[in-house]
Specification:
The complex is a heterodimer of chains A (about 400) and B (about 600). Chain A is mainly α and about 400 residues long. Chain A folds into three domains: about 140 residues; about 110 residues, Cytochrome Bc1 Complex, Chain D, domain 2; about 110 residues, Cytochrome c-like domain (Cytochrome Bc1 Complex, Chain D, domain 2, Orthogonal Bundle), CATH 1.10.760. Chain A has 17 helices and ten strands. In chain A, the strands form five sheets. Chain A has a two-stranded antiparallel ribbon with strand order 1-2. In chain A, a hairpin with a 3-residue loop joins strand 3 and strand 4. Chain B is built from 14 helices and 22 strands. In chain B, strands 1, 2, 3, 11, 12, 13, 14 and 22 form an eight-stranded mixed beta sheet that branches. In chain B, helix 1 runs parallel beside helix 14 and helix 7 crosses helix 14. Chain B has about 600 residues and is of the alpha/beta class. In chain B, about 55% of the residues are buried. The longest helix of chain B is centred in the C-terminal third of the chain and has 22 residues. Chain B is globular, with a radius of gyration of 23 Å. Classes of the chains: A mainly alpha (about 400), B alpha/beta (about 600). Chains A and B meet through loops of A and helix 2 and strand 10 of B.
């Protein structure tokens, strides 16, 4: 007992430089706790060692990067960091411990986070239990193993900048923009990337393929984007993981479970307002295939036999359980990858406090051929008012190869 | 060596309907809850894919989800002077195994018992005189009235989303419902299922006969529904794979569809599957449970201390655990004393099959576990029993639970059992056969009971449960009466040829009959004739509560689950509003 007390005093004596947060900074810590939810820090930094203890391998096109230990452990975490150090990491992508950070840590978005929010986040991170978890932070192959190579990457893709609010827009729109473009880092998945993994700014939020899922177009585009969704639909989706036309699974399911389902309604409403009001962009959709098309006819029979019991003959599904496919942006993306993947491999919808039931789309890959999947996806994409490019059996085969591989 | 786990507020034995409801409500109340379940984890997303769930061979013939006799079985005999032998293949009833219990692979018929059922002894004596009761009967009034239980029936129905048509809403008779039912405080949560052609014939014929048919209450939902726990269900697709299957469409109410998604979000709840409770542990004076001992799948023994123990397993195993743990005095048929094992009862089945011939297409494959039309004119005391000389009654139903290819091929009487003629008959009659069936009550008797077998043991060396049961003359008369009524109705529906299904006597464990095994740890007002008080609390060990059909004093002419659920919420209410405050016996003598 005495020894424990001695240790506690020792920690207190370390004061502001190396110890956990002041007990009277409750408000600051709680603000930071919420911001850590908004930033979805756990998505990458959680591991078996703890929700922020790091060590999880983050897949990138260039190799795996192990997420850092964010707990205030002195030797393996951020124990020796100052608030200034933390701000540099968020704002400039530069770590006092590791040098240049890789953009798997989305500092090109976090650069927009205000200093006040950065300090609150840091205060929260100081308040959590330190976990000793040494993480190998240098796992990328050459030339990326040289962190200095990020100087070149930054020169092309990154300028540290502060968030600029638009005086011609509402406060809500600007709050939404701050969240979406900053801590929310939506573009990290939803914006297409260039060859070296930087965002294609000209196609901001127009949809992207990542980890063999399609992150859909988040502009107000009427076919592939949010054009047919109301602000309330977007809010409902982020809060519950469900709308009439969507049921979140895969990486977005994780985002909703860990992050957006725990955000405040005003913040969700602000994000939705920003996404809905910033305009539509993306390739024009083609004319729908006629019913007489051979693939459409074949796809319809596959649909009736396999899909209609849940998604209904008219494609309207069962509200809040089986998403409607009629009018669903997820099936109208230019890249049909998610639809193919979900049919082949199945997917489980996320459970949220507001919608605890987590139904699953079963795997049909074991009894539908590539051609049958191509036909039914083509049918979904061109029925009930949907319009999108036909899908070929070889596209299905490509997805099947990927999802059949371990760890995908 | 037994390893000891940290103490919990509540240990629940069995994660079926009652275990999962108890767990959710008590976790919600802030208690630290562990459920210990003998069988495996099962949830809809992982286990009941639409591409594999409707597999008749795997689930209905090979019975994948049921208890295996090598895990635990019973011994059985009809009479006291016989030697009971172990059931080596479950037949007449199929005990469940695994998360969801019987609530996962049931048909979904969700009935309320009738008001007279709750005071059947008093009512029978009042109307017919004491001499009308059968010989050696142990018929008992329930310790609560229908009116007292009504709010809890209502709550259970709302959790399940039961589809049906009210017949008696706050005393007002409603068109299309059951006018003979007890007074309901509210409508069913969802409208009745769509009825088939056969039900329309039944309804017309029965109405013309002066009877009162209605669509039977169903936990295969007619439309999408969100229950009070926020859990979402889908409309039934009438696929006909309900009983003995898990529902892949989120349409059949079960712990999986109605309770577990909400329960699993509580961090103060944990579930230990593939772990069998071997004993409820008692304090040295035997007056308090200190927790439970269980064995995991690697045969490691664990002790789980707990302040409250809830025995929520299947009825037989509730009784056996009480006997093995020394909770309550075992029943002795010689002296008629003792309570644990007393009042075991079952269900009577009888009916008639109508062969209609060409021109009738009933489409039995478009079925559902609870799809059907029923009538209660011959149930409970809804008719004058005086001329018939028996106590009790039956619900009479025309239903298509399924038309599955391996098991469903009705043929007219006189058809050979195999070969070309049989095949032709199946082809000709598959679509033009329907049946009217009666599901009847079974009274309790001095010589129908459960105890520990003197000879046979389970793999852990503990004695098996022994069943002593046969149908008595009262039940045989009743079954015969119901078979005749069923035959009259199916003839009136237009059947050209009628064959009858009589009650099989003596009772045999071989062909499947029903898994409505009741009694053995019954509720009551007198500790000399009941193991549990009116709240389901053990008279002897007040921090033990027992749920399930084991608490029925005798069985009624319905499926038990509706009443099992109502009793569960009734007990839960007593635990939350009384026991947690006092931690004492809730009924003082």
């Amino acid at each position: 007992m005495r020894r424990v007390t001695g240790l506690a005093i020792g920690l207190l004596l370390l004061g502001g430089t190396g110890a956990r947060a002041d007990l009277d900074s409750y408000v600051q810590v709680e603000k930071g706790r919420y911001l850590a939810v908004v930033g979805d820090c756990q998505a990458c930094h959680a591991s078996a060692k703890g929700p922020l203890a790091g060590g999880r391998a983050i897949e990138t096109p260039f190799g795996n990067i192990n997420a850092a230990n964010l707990t205030p452990d002195r030797d393996t975490g951020l124990g020796r960091w100052s608030a200034e150090d933390f701000w540099h990491a968020l704002h400039d992508g530069h770590s006092v411990t590791d040098g240049h950070l890789y953009p798997a840590f989305p500092y090109n978005y976090y650069t927009k986070v205000s200093r006040a929010d950065s300090d609150a986040l840091f205060a929260f991170l100081r308040s959590v239990e330190p976990v000793s978890n040494p993480v190998d932070r240098n796992t990328l192959p050459w030339p990326f193993s040289m962190r200095a190579s990020m100087v070149a990457w930054n020169a092309v893709n990154f300028t540290p900048s502060a968030f600029q609010s638009d005086p011609n827009r509402s406060a809500e729109y600007n709050r939404g923009a701050y969240l979406v473009e900053g801590l929310g880092h939506c573009g990290a998945c939803h914006t297409p990337m260039n060859l070296i993994g930087g965002p294609k700014d000209s196609q901001h939020l127009q949809g992207n393929s990542i980890q063999n899922w399609v992150a859909p177009n988040l502009t107000n585009d009427s076919q592939a984007g949010l054009g047919s969704w109301s602000v309330d639909d977007v809010v409902q989706y982020l809060q519950t993981g469900r709308t009439l036309h969507a049921a979140a699974a895969g990486p977005m399911g994780e985002v909703i479970a860990v992050s957006t389902s725990k955000m405040t309604m005003p913040d969700l409403h602000a994000m939705a307002t920003y996404l809905k009001e910033r305009g539509a962009a993306g390739p024009a959709s083609p004319a729908p295939l006629p019913k007489s098309d051979g693939q459409m006819a074949a796809g319809e029979t596959v649909y009736i036999d396999n899909c209609s019991a849940c998604h209904a003959r008219n494609g309207m599904g069962v509200p809040d359980l089986f998403p409607a496919l009629a009018g669903a942006p997820s099936v109208r993306q230019v890249d049909p990858g998610t639809t193919i993947r979900v049919i082949i491999a199945g997917a489980q919808v996320v459970s949220t406090p507001a919608a605890p039931t987590a139904p699953a789309m079963p795997s049909f890959g074991w009894h539908l051929s590539d051609a049958q999947v191509a036909d039914v996806v083509t049918y979904l994409r061109n029925s009930w008012g949907n319009a999108a490019q036909a899908v070929s059996a070889s596209q299905v085969a490509d997805v099947r190869r990927v999802v059949a591989a371990p760890g995908k | 060596m037994t390893r000891r786990l940290p103490k919990k507020d509540v240990a629940i034995i069995g994660l079926g309907w009652t275990g999962s409801i108890m767990a959710l409500e008590l976790a919600k109340a802030g208690l630290d809850v562990v459920a210990i379940e003998r069988g495996p984890w099962r949830d809809t997303a992982s286990d009941f894919s639409i591409t594999t769930a409707p597999d008749e061979l795997r689930y209905a013939i090979r019975k994948e989800m049921f208890l295996r006799p090598k895990q635990e079985t019973l011994t059985m005999r009809n009479k006291l002077d016989q030697t009971a032998l172990p059931i080596r293949q479950f037949g007449s009833f199929l005990p469940p195994n695994g998360v969801g219990g019987g609530g996962m692979h049931w048909n979904g018929q969700t009935w309320r018992f009738l008001p007279d059922d709750f005071r059947i002894r008093s009512h029978t004596i009042e109307r017919y005189g004491a001499a009308f009761l059968p010989e050696n009967n142990f018929i008992q009034d329930w310790p609560m009235s229908y009116a007292e239980l009504e709010p809890f029936y209502d709550r259970f129905e709302k959790v399940l989303g039961v589809s049906g048509q009210a017949g008696n809403l706050r005393g007002q008779i409603q068109p299309g419902g059951n006018p003979l039912e007890g007074e309901r405080s509210d409508h069913y949560p969802t409208p009745p299922m769509k009825q088939g052609y056969s039900q329309s014939l039944f309804t017309k014929a029965a109405t013309d006969m002066g009877l009162h048919p209605f669509p039977r209450p169903s936990a295969n939902l007619s439309e999408g529904y969100t229950n009070p726990y926020g859990v979402r269900m889908a409309p039934c697709t009438y696929c006909g794979f309900c009983e003995w299957f898990g529902c892949a469409n989120y349409s059949k109410s079960s712990p999986q569809t109605c309770v577990l998604p909400a329960l699993m979000r509580y961090s103060n709840f944990e579930c230990r599957t593939d772990s069998e409770v071997t004993k409820v542990n008692l304090s040295a004076d035997g007056k308090r449970a200190t927790g439970v001992t269980f064995v995991d799948s690697e045969r490691t023994e664990w002790e789980q201390p707990a302040d409250i123990v809830l025995i929520c397993a299947f009825s037989f195993f509730n009784v056996r655990l009480m006997l093995l743990s020394g909770i309550g005095k075992p029943y002795d048929p010689a002296s008629g004393e003792g309570v644990v094992g007393r009042n075991y009862a079952y269900q009577v089945g009888a009916g008639a099959v109508g062969h209609f011939g060409p021109g009738f297409n009933f489409n039995p494959f478009a079925g559902a576990g609870s799809l059907g039309a029923a009538l209660d004119n011959f149930n409970s005391d809804n008719f004058d029993h005086g001329p018939h000389g028996f106590v009790g009654g039956a619900s009479i139903t025309n239903a298509y639970t399924n038309g599955r290819p391996i098991s469903y091929h009705p043929v007219p009487p006189g058809t050979p059992g195999w070969g070309a003629k049989w095949k032709r008959a199946v082809h000709e009659t598959y679509n033009s056969t329907t049946n009217v069936g009666a599901q009847g009550s079974v009274m309790s008797y001095r010589d129908s009971y459960l105890d520990l077998d003197p000879t046979y043991k389970d793999p852990l060396g503990r004695p098996l449960l022994r069943m002593t049961f046969d149908y008595h003359p009262n039940e045989q008369k009743m079954a015969n009466f119901m078979m005749q009524r069923s035959g009259e109705i199916v003839r009136a529906m237009g059947a050209k040829q009628v064959s009858t299904n009589a009650l099989r006597v003596p009772y045999t464990v071989v062909p499947y009959q029903t898994t409505h095994n009741t009694g053995g740890a019954v509720i009551g007002d007198d500790p000399k004739t009941s193991a549990l008080n009116r709240y389901g609390q053990s008279w002897d060990v007040p921090n033990v509560f027992v749920t399930g059909a084991s608490s029925f004093p005798q069985n009624a002419g319905y499926n038990p689950t509706g009443t099992v659920g109502a009793l569960c919420y009734w007990t839960l209410d007593a635990i939350k509003s009384q026991y947690l405050k006092s931690e004492t016996p809730l009924v003082q003598l």
